[in-house]
């Protein structure tokens, strides 16, 4: 693998969100995305990669052999869907070809952990994976066109879940969740007393570790990440301690560029409804508001990153994917009941508005718009 292949230009897999067709027509601009994509299930337990054509309102779902998590549209028109951990398969779907599903198999002794991103030139694909018998996390490296396995980088931690490209175009940031799992035990967590989550920065050209950050509570698993154009990083956390004994100090962390990884402030009464679980993130840079979904807590939470504290929360049933739309100054949110909502970017409490509902689409934790 040569150095040029792994120079990176921009963050891949930008999170997006869903729009109802009537709202789309009302607010349509040249910058309005044409399609949204999400992994989904149906009430019968089938797995799909779903696409909503925004201009027409046409909803199409391609059946896939694995439950999906994050999705990543490619420049050639295909869409990657990463298998939900622990998965031995991801898929590439070509909606232009009926039944155009290409499987991507994990290499021996590895399983996929749900996320991935592209290299600078779009030629290489990085995927979060676990070398489960070796008890270590890795980033798999594949050719983006053929998905041929080229190699891997060590993530210097267990359970790498999310990975993003930093704006410098040369650095990868990885969320090591810290949880040991093995496919012989399904999704059972094997090391909760000794887990060590970390936020690790890697040189994208060589895999060399540049830096590493940890939180004061080793049972706060670092799961999903958000990277701003300025190089700040937000992290959604999941608490693996005993909620009946105590609540975590926070469930959201923020790292200003060049600074430490800091928990955002919140009191016990406010954090209790989130049930120790945060999922997806989106950021309004104009107001410095971070929005984070809590599907187990049935709320979307809002945080002020300048003040480093919790602002308020809006109730929603099992909110999943979320994204900020700068043209409209709103957040869009999907939920596990098949609904799509809009939420104003506001420092005060505001209600969600239902945009559209698809009862047979049980959205997973992420949405992407193109």
TrEMBL record:
Range of residues in the leader sequence: 1-23
PROSITE patterns documented for this protein: TAT
Keywords: Signal
InterPro entries: Quino_amine_DH_bsu, TAT_signal, UCP028101, WD40/YVTN_repeat-like_dom_sf
Keyword Signal: yes
Pfam families: DUF1513
Gene3D superfamilies, per database record: YVTN repeat-like/Quinoprotein amine dehydrogenase
TM region(s), chain numbering: none
Keyword Signal annotated: yes
Protein name, per record: DUF1513 domain-containing protein
Biological source species: Candidatus Thiothrix singaporensis
């Amino acid at each position: 693998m040569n150095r040029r292949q792994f120079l990176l230009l921009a963050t891949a897999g930008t999170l997006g969100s869903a729009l109802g067709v009537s709202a789309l027509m009302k607010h349509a601009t040249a910058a309005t995305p044409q399609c949204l994509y999400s992994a989904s299930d149906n009430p019968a337990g089938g797995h799909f990669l779903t696409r909503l054509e925004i201009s027409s309102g046409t909803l199409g779902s391609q059946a896939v052999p694995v439950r999906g998590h994050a999705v990543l549209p490619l420049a050639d028109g295909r869409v990657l869907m990463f298998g939900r951990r622990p998965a031995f398969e991801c898929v590439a779907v070509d909606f232009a070809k009926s039944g155009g599903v290409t499987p991507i198999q994990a290499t021996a002794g590895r399983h996929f952990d749900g996320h991935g991103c592209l290299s600078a030139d779009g030629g290489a694909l990085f995927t979060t994976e676990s070398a489960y018998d070796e008890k270590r996390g890795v980033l798999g490296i594949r050719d983006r066109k053929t998905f041929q396995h080229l190699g891997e980088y060590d993530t210097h931690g267990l359970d790498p879940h999310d990975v993003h490209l930093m704006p410098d175009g040369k650095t990868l940031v990885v969320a090591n969740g810290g949880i040991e799992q093995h496919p012989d035990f399904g999704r059972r967590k094997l090391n909760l007393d000794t887990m060590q989550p970390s936020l690790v920065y890697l040189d994208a050209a060589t895999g060399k570790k540049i830096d590493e950050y940890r939180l004061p509570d080793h049972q706060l698993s670092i799961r999903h990440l958000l990277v701003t154009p300025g190089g700040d990083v937000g992290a959604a956390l999941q608490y693996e301690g005993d909620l009946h004994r105590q609540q975590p100090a926070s469930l959201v962390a923020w790292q200003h560029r060049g600074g430490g990884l800091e928990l955002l402030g919140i009191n016990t009464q406010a954090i209790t409804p989130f049930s120790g679980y945060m999922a997806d993130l989106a950021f309004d840079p104009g107001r410095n508001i971070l929005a984070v979904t809590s599907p187990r807590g049935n709320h979307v939470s809002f945080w002020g990153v300048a003040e480093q504290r919790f602002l308020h929360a809006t109730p929603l049933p099992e909110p999943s994917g979320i994204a900020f739309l700068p043209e409209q100054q709103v957040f869009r949110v999907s939920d596990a009941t098949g609904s799509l909502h809009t939420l104003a970017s506001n420092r005060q409490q505001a209600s969600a508005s239902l945009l559209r509902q698809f009862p047979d689409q049980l959205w997973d934790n992420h949405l992407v718009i193109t």
